[in-house]
Design goal:
The chain is α/β, with parallel strands linked by helices and about 280 residues long. The chain has eight helices and eleven strands. The structure holds adenosine-2'-5'-diphosphate.
Amino acid sequence: MTQHVEVVAAAGVGSAAAYPIPSNCFAETVTEVKHYTDRLFKFRITRPASFRFRSGEFVMIGLPNAERPVFRAYSIASPSWDEEVEFFSIKVPDGPLTEHLQKIKVGDTVLMRKKPTGTLVNDALLPGKRLYMFSTGTGIAPFASLIRDPETYEKFDQVILTHTCREVAELEYGKELVKICNEDPLVGEFAKGRLIHYTTVTREPYPFTGRITDLMESGKLFEDLGVPPICPENDRGMICGSMAMLNDTKAILENKFGLEEGSNARPGTFVVERAFVD
Ligand code: A2P
């Protein structure tokens, strides 16, 4: 059951003071927090009945801890049909938002701006057979939403989620997610056998190692998956990671494989979203 908080309660880091809630924000209650590593955690909040979004979009998040709170863009990691709203976050030691956000507890209040937006949505892509979701680190968040949305499987025959992290432990959120997805009574039916999770690690031994960009350049990605190299007729891409990862992956999709960037206004064969919170 969802509980929509209208007024800030008086306990915990997310509800420290009686600052007024900005009129363009919802004030929501934290329902779950899970820490994966000393750098990564997820949290879930209640969902206001009037909050609508498309799977893959992002929204601005803040804490009610100042007269003018700091807001940062967060991809929504839950699908649009979910009763709650999920986020997957990095912890930056001196990050203006994440140094406080990483301390939130169940029952605390999180501010969420009312208007979601973003380009990592099914509408911004032309129809195709195979959808690649390229992610590094917390860049998996919008895909956590999209792989749990039946619409993704209505539009594509096969969904390949690639996730590259520095360390093995950082892959855990994604592994948990794919399991949830396959076992879900609604989405599991669509995802089983059609959702492929390809994980690689760059700074520790692991069965698959290396940056996704290098694995695309060398062709190892396609050999490992047992699929033909990317082509504009059949394949679509979505990219989410650091600015450097976005630029490098985008350049390969354009120059090596002939894909063209799309937008909400003009759908194309791939789309890009920055996933970097400080
Ligand atoms: P590497 O360990 O070689 O830097 P980060 O946590 O810094 O965002 O990195 C997450 C993952 O993304 C790491 O595995 C990192 O590899 C990889 N990465 C960093 N920069 C790029 C890039 N320009 N292109 C592809 N992958 C990258």
